[in-house]
Design brief:
Length: about 450
């Protein structure tokens, strides 16, 4: 059962020393209870109390990190069943399956797919992060060769897949520096693979039929000293897997059932050989609730919608996505190109920039920081007004790049035009642009400074 702020406060020294950067021990305790700060931030609390509180306040689904450094992927740590309750914490990793029975030509094709499967949307780069390498031939040298290619030719995170400890150890000898995920723990090889996990400090995948077998495996792994675990329920149908995913999320959250308090991995190709169906299954488990999704292809027409879905679901609804405040260039603008100004709400930028690009007209797009608010919301909140726009334009450096003094504002804030001309000063003209982004191409064709 989770501890309240008062429960944690009772275990603290109560000296109000402020070493934790909070004014009182009670304020610190409340932040610990809310999950916003670690109990270890208090330098005077005893190790026993740290252990007790850390265990009691740990997220019901353990966070697992695959890889190291800037490329590391964190999954798990979820606290809600539904996104609208709060938010989902960590988006699932998406990866590509390689096997050691693939020909060199097929491997070339798949590795190239992995390297090029990247798309930019609203200023965010969407891409696959993981290469899962599966031993099918049981040939140690062939498996090592595929692992080495993945290491040499990509920066991807790695999953090593085999039920043979010897094959896994051979792969780890090549790629242990990337802290791969070891996939293959079952009732027969648990002791040996648990030893590999501890030796190489890598997370493992517990693979079993049904959640009872999975729970038994995680209990044994925990007893063996392996704490970082990913779950792989083996199912005969998508329906069964969907039910298992729901139970694996629900039992830790609602019943504090620790043996299932780990993220999961899914291979949609387990259920179908049809690529269209595979992507539909993958989309289902992006939403509910897999931590890692490994695909058999990363062809762009499949992956782009999947990446967009992942971004949409895992964007924090309480924190608007924003763009950097600056002047963006489209279609090679020159000194005669118009200056359009709008807010830094990423959806606004995405819609406006798409229409500008399709118009093929050169444009300077000035994006003002409005804390991620849309045009009307920012205007009503006083964050997108004549004074703030004028200040941004004057400080942006755009005046040195154009020969005219004309700025275009969104049609929804047309009433700002007179005040903005006064704020910008003599010689400036404010043009009222369209209300909706789809009208921009026609407007730009007719625009004159």
């Amino acid at each position: 059962m989770a501890l309240s702020g008062l429960d944690i406060f009772k275990k603290l020294p109560k000296t109000n020393c402020k070493k934790c950067n909070f004014p009182t021990c009670l304020a610190f305790a409340m932040q610990v209870a809310a999950g916003k700060v670690e109990i270890s931030s208090c330098p005077d609390v005893s190790p026993d109390v740290v252990a007790q509180i850390a265990e009691a306040t740990a997220p019901p689904i353990r966070p697992i990190t695959i890889g190291t450094g800037d490329n590391a992927l964190k999954i798990g740590e979820e606290t809600v069943m539904f996104r609208h309750d709060k938010r989902f914490e960590h988006q699932p990793g998406i990866g590509l399956l390689l096997t050691d029975e693939m020909s060199d030509e097929t491997l070339n094709k798949h590795i190239e797919q992995f390297k090029t499967a990247a798309f930019e949307r609203v200023g965010v780069m969407m891409r696959a992060e993981i290469l899962a390498i599966k031993s099918v031939t049981k040939d140690v040298e062939r498996f090592k060769a595929v692992v080495k290619r993945a290491m040499d030719e990509t920066q991807g995170l790695l999953i090593l897949m085999s039920d043979s400890p010897d094959i896994l150890k051979a792969g780890l000898s090549i790629c242990s520096e990337r802290k791969p995920l070891i996939c293959g723990v079952n009732a027969d090889n648990l002791a040996e693979i648990a030893q590999l996990a501890k030796e190489y400090n890598c997370p493992v995948v517990a693979k079993g039929v049904g959640i009872d077998e999975i729970a038994d495996l995680t209990n044994k792994l925990s007893s063996a000293g392996v704490k970082d675990i990913v779950l792989y329920p083996v199912s005969t149908s998508m329906k069964d897997r969907f039910e298992q995913e729901t139970m694996i999320r629900r039992l830790p959250l609602k019943k504090t059932f620790r043996p299932l308090g780990f993220p999961t991995i899914i291979f949609p190709s387990d259920f179908t050989a049809d690529k269209d169906e595979e992507m539909l299954i993958a989309a289902t488990f992006v939403a509910r609730y897999s931590g890692i999704i490994i695909l058999s292809t990363l062809e762009p027409h499949y992956t782009y919608p999947l990446f967009c879905l992942r971004m949409n679901i895992y964007t924090d609804p309480q924190r608007p996505m924003t763009m950097e405040e600056k002047v963006y260039e489209f279609n090679n603008p020159d000194q005669n190109a118009p200056i359009l100004v709008t807010t830094n709400f990423s959806l606004t930028y995405f819609l406006v920039s798409g229409e500008i690009e399709s118009s093929r007209k050169p444009v300077w797009l000035a994006i003002q920081n409005t804390e991620g608010l849309s045009v009307l919301t920012a205007w009503s909140a006083g964050k997108f007004n004549a004074e703030s726009i004028a200040k941004f334009i004057k400080n942006s450096g755009i005046m040195e790049k154009v020969s005219h003094r004309n700025v275009v504002i969104p049609g929804y804030v047309a009433e700002l035009s007179g005040d903005l001309e006064e704020e910008l000063g003599a010689g400036w003209k404010v043009t009222v642009g369209p209300r909706e982004a789809p009208s921009l191409p026609g407007f730009l064709k007719q625009w004159q400074a």
